[in-house]
Automatic annotation (TrEMBL), chains A, B:
Keywords, ordered alphabetically: Hydrolase, Multifunctional enzyme, Oxidoreductase
Protein name (database record): Riboflavin biosynthesis protein RibD
Function: Converts 2,5-diamino-6-(ribosylamino)-4(3h)-pyrimidinone 5'-phosphate into 5-amino-6-(ribosylamino)-2,4(1h,3h)-pyrimidinedione 5'-phosphate.
NCBIfam families cross-referenced by the UniProt entry: eubact_ribD
The keyword Oxidoreductase is annotated on this UniProt entry: yes
Organism: Malaciobacter molluscorum LMG 25693
Length: 336, 336
């Protein structure tokens, strides 16, 4: 296997995917720092909005690798880490290459500008997979080049684009994904999520999204709560996708405090929300597939007879990414 | 992400899996060489029986990283590379850690002893995931320790065991795997292998195995050739699993030169062969599941209505490994 820019960028992209969706409204970004030719110092990601950017996490970890007891270990605030590195870097990064999946930010927001920081640290090279699309934050490449830092743009751009895609949609309207759990042979009644890992992940998503959409039938039959209790998170607002507007209001989902529930079959309503998760099976997927950006499949490695595609339904996908979630698979698909 | 022994061993294991089955009758082995603390010099694997072992490929690539125009570049024969490195290493590996998924071999066979070579190169550490189980080849760890090379055994042993499992079975009897192609929702008629990548892989497997098993019904209906033409390989011997012994001998599989065809429903016959692939659907899998070591699924990311599990069939699996094969997935499963 070749150990080159693509190899290191792939590590950055894979690390970022671990936090996909969880960084909302920020993009999912990964960063790898390599000293000399191929000495890996750090593989880090941006983990949550308001917290340190990927570059800052990676710079801190890299610095600690050579200075394991340095005071930077105690710093968590981005402004503090920026300030500390600017004063104490002592040219440590001069022979380093920074691989980052997204152009370093150029503006001071909740966290200071990464492009500014890198300009002062003067790494040997900054390899960027994808340019920023955010008007406020972009210009990082220019800032770096003005500071005579050598930059390269476009390494694994396609893969970085898929990683960035939810953020692109959040910025221009809505990102809508469909979550489904199934067995390895595609049955959805046999694929009920049972692992704690997968449950916690779904609840973490519910904690982040603006709206959860669910079919009327599921509400009537399964009577779910649809909250985020497994991560002690916020229960999302819910839209019940249904023509029939009458529901038993004793169903638990109606009783969650501080939650709005809309009952509607008007898909235009989805566009009022930036980040939407739909939970359902094949029938609802077939109805809504034109509106869906990603299909997120949780696949449990069992074979079971059971509910699968019933009538004709042909959808071709591309696999965008996949992770393990405990013993189960998490597969991100995009319609071709 | 932590950059530690496990991180590097995982790279070695993943690289080895790319050649799983293709190294038969040798084990699939990966090797990563790291200089200093985390400078990755090479990620290599054993690719085919008779060719260089993983360690030798990795040592050669690592040496070339620092000596890009060295004459070692022109050497491919294992004895030549061993001999050259012993004479010319110039202590290059003294600050290197060698990560290898299997204990380095201790005997001189088609290729010379890797333990012997490493003893002379004197790396800083040799980290071994799994001990050798081959009587002839084992003892490498002892040889290394006698030469005062620091060794550690057991890093990612469970993962290395799964990687080694076919080899363990080849050594003690038979390894039997079941190959099935399906869509992402489990239909097997919608999952016909169409990509050239996947086709070539299946043909490469056919070129290696001792016996291909196929159901009588498939032979009657599909009339397949079951050769390895896509890799210009050897067509395997075939066992048609069928109670009814009468077949139309004009079916192409009977006309392949130098091929034996057995028609039988006696599963004990499988144990006469070391390396067996069964190709089929759910029904045959359900019948033969007790005999199967691995299920190898080729999953194409489409959703299609079609043939799936028909009656009751409950199998729980563990995902052992997975790769991409072009745009499709290759998933290795083991029954729980």
């Amino acid at each position: 296997m070749k150990i080159n820019d693509k190899f290191f960028m792939k590590l950055a992209i894979d690390e970022a995917w671990k936090y996909q969706f969880l960084t909302y409204p920020n993009p999912s970004v990964g960063c790898v720092i390599v000293k000399g030719d191929s000495e890996i110092l750090s593989i880090e990601a941006h983990k949550q909005a308001g917290q340190a950017h990927a570059e800052v996490n990676a710079l801190k970890t890299a610095f600690l690798k050579y200075h394991p007891n340095d005071v930077i270990k105690t710093l968590n605030d981005s402004f503090d880490i920026h300030d500390y590195l600017k004063r104490k870097h002592n040219d440590f990064f001069n022979d380093c290459t920074i691989y980052v999946t997204l152009e370093p930010c150029n503006h001071v927001g909740k966290t200071p500008s990464c492009a500014q920081l890198l300009s002062e640290l003067k790494p040997k090279r900054v390899v960027i997979a994808h340019e920023d699309i955010n008007k406020e934050a972009k210009g990082g490449l220019e800032t770096l080049e003005k500071a005579s830092v050598k930059c390269e743009l476009g390494c694994m751009k396609k893969e970085a684009y898929e990683l960035l895609y939810p953020f692109i949609k959040w910025n221009s309207g809505s990102f809508i994904f469909y979550k489904m759990a199934q067995t390895i042979n595609g049955t959805i009644d046999g694929g009920k999520i049972s692992s704690n890992h997968a449950l916690a992940y779904v609840h973490a998503l519910r904690d982040r999204i603006d709206l959860l959409v669910i079919g009327g039938n599921t509400v009537r039959v399964d009577k779910p709560i649809l909250d985020a209790r497994h991560v002690i998170g916020r229960a999302p607002n819910v839209m019940i996708y249904s023509k029939r507007k009458i529901f038993d209001k004793d169903i638990p989902l109606f009783k969650v405090p501080n939650r709005e529930v809309v009952i509607s079959n008007d898909l235009f309503k989805l566009l009022d929300y930036k980040f939407v998760m739909i939970e359902g099976g094949y029938n609802l997927l077939d109805k809504l597939k034109e509106k869906v950006d990603f299909l997120v499949l949780i696949v449990t490695p069992k074979m079971r007879a059971g509910l699968n595609i019933e009538n004709n339904m042909d959808i071709d996908f591309e696999i965008i990414h996949e992770n393990f979630i405990g013993k189960d698979k998490l597969i991100y698909l995009k319609r071709k």
